[in-house]
Design brief:
five-stranded parallel β-sheet, alpha/beta, globular, 6 helices, 139 residues
């Protein structure tokens, strides 16, 4: 199983602890992950290539985890694409941050957490359900 982790490029560093917690929790449960904004860098003129690569990576994942504590338009685009490809979408945000109606409304599961310990606990509670839903990649 593989998870695509969607997070704001502009605000990525603000969520280091949260993203690290997600990645470690997934690894401990034999789920591979990809943080697109960490793996790839594009020039401003490469917007088409960037989106093609993002869509390719989403196609190769089973689930998309959208960390929306720091909003980003790209997160919504990735979620919409993932839903169009029948991927499972998990909406994450810190309890005291702004709610994303579009991402939440498109998600299959929601985790609203208070800190990284709470995030880990809630993700661990959800993982058995995700594993049971695993289906072949939609390509």
């Amino acid at each position: 199983m593989k998870a695509y982790i969607s997070v704001s490029f502009k605000n990525r560093e603000l969520l280091n602890n949260e993203i690290d917690t997600i990645i470690k929790t997934l690894i401990e449960n034999s789920i591979d992950s990809l943080v697109f904004v960490d793996k790839y860098r594009f020039q401003l003129s490469q917007e088409r290539e960037m989106m093609q690569k993002a869509m390719e990576e989403i196609d190769n994942c089973d689930i998309l985890i959208a960390e929306t504590s720091e909003k980003g338009i790209g997160i919504g685009v990735e979620v919409g694409y993932a839903k169009g490809k029948s991927k499972t979408v998990i909406y994450l945000r810190q309890k005291d941050t702004e709610h994303s109606t579009t991402v939440a409304g498109s998600s299959d599961f929601q985790i609203i957490y208070s800190d990284t310990i709470d995030l880990r606990m809630r993700l661990l509670e959800l993982l058995p359900t995700l594993v049971s839903l695993k289906a072949p990649h939609n390509k």
